[in-house]
């Protein structure tokens, strides 16, 4: 699976203000916008912002058979949804038409911090 850091808008029309500053994803892949929208449908239960714009998604890989691997974190290791969140993410992404298997891995490095949030999330939380 090949991926590159998302740093500029691509032809799929992804809103860069809603992009976390350092997510790795296959820019230009036709399935990426649907995956991003699916991720944006999952919200952190303690913060009224979706997990994608919060910067909890570190990496999205899509292989040649449209199998998807997602690496994500949580805002804190003691988060009460640590056991549930990866399943919620898997279910949301798996609902995207045309995808194969979806694997979600919970990682703790790098540690999440507010600098990983998209500008839109910071605005929603009044951090500007």
Write up this protein.
The chain is an alpha+beta fold. The protein has a single domain, classed as Fe-S cluster assembly (FSCA) (GMP Synthetase, Chain A, domain 3). The protein is built from 3 helices and 5 strands, in the order E-E-H-E-E-H-E-H. The strands form 2 sheets. A 3-stranded mixed beta sheet has the order 3-4-5, covered by helices on one side. A two-stranded antiparallel sheet has the order 1-2. The radius of gyration is 14 Å and the shape is globular. The protein starts with a strand and ends with a helix. The N terminus is likely disordered.
Query: Whole-Å distance between the termini?
Result: 36 Å
Write out the CATH superfamily name.
Fe-S cluster assembly (FSCA)
Shape: globular
The class by helix and strand makeup works out as alpha+beta
- The order of strands across the largest sheet is 3-4-5
In the CATH hierarchy, the third-tier topology is known as GMP Synthetase, Chain A, domain 3
Which class in CATH terms?
Alpha Beta
> Could you say what the CATH architecture is?
2-Layer Sandwich
Largest sheet: 3 strands, mixed
Share in helix: 10-25%
Number of helices: 3
Radius of gyration: 14 Å
Mean pLDDT: 86
Low-confidence stretches: 1-14
| Count of strand segments | 5
| Number of structural units classed as domains | 1
User: What series of H and E elements makes up the topology?
Assistant: EEHEEHEH
Give the DSSP E fraction (strand runs of 2 or more residues). 15-25%
């Amino acid at each position: 699976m090949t991926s590159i850091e998302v740093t500029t808008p691509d032809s799929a029309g992804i809103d860069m203000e809603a992009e976390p500053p350092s997510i790795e994803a296959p820019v230009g892949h036709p399935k990426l916008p649907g995956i991003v929208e699916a991720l944006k449908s999952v919200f952190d239960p303690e913060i009224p912002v979706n997990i994608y714009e919060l910067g909890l998604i570190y990496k999205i890989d899509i292989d040649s058979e449209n199998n998807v691997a997602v690496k994500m974190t949580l805002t804190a290791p003691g988060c009460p949804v640590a056991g549930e969140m990866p399943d919620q993410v898997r279910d949301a992404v798996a609902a995207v038409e045309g995808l194969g298997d979806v694997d979600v891995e919970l990682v703790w490095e790098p540690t999440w911090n507010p600098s990983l949030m998209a500008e839109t999330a910071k605005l929603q939380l009044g951090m500007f």
